[in-house]
Amino acid sequence: MRAALAARPVGTVAGGVEIAGYASLWGVADLDGDVVARGAFADSLGRTGAAGVRMLHQHEARAVVGVWDTVVEDARGLFVRGRIEDWSAEARFAAALARAGALDGLSIGFRAARARREGRLRVLSAVALWEVSLVTFPMLPGARFGVVQEVI
Questions:
Q1: What share of the chain is helix, strand, coil (3-state, %, to 5)?
Q2: In whole angstroms, what is the distance from residue 51 CA to residue 67 CA?
Q3: What does 12-79 look like in DSSP terms, one character per residue?
Q4: CA end-to-end span of the chain, whole Å?
Q5: Contact 124, 36 (CB under 8 A)
Q6: Over the stretch 36-86, which tens digit does the pLDDT of each residue have?
Q7: pTM above the 0.85 mark?
């Protein structure tokens, strides 16, 4: 997947905003007590790749605001890189918020395929990932993105 990203020069989409960050971090409890174990996304991403993961604004299914070019597990967590497009009012709004630094949170939309309880925590060892949203307040405070490049 990183080869595909390298093949496309950074910032080739007119009017878009390229972003990157971590949608999930291994072994870190979110505000609801969910902890994602390393490798939890492997099966899901093996089936769908980045193309099967939607970029939404605030988990609204009607608000597809861009595309994820890269969604990969690395040593830290689930790394994502993509483009907020300018194809709708909602997308332009999300891009403006990201540019201003007012929107920088990420949140995953998923179904737990395999999980276990460890006290108050739910440890997710396999999840079906269907979307990564740009959010104001992420459930996992460390799940953040930054603007890589803006194309005007």
A1: 20, 50, 30
A2: 8
A3: -STT-EEEEEEEEEBT-B-TTSEEEPTTTTHHHHHHHTGGGSEEEETTEEEEEEEEEEEEEE-SSEEE
A4: 26
A5: yes
A6: 999 999 999 999 999 999 999 999 999 999 999 999 999 999 999 999 999
A7: yes
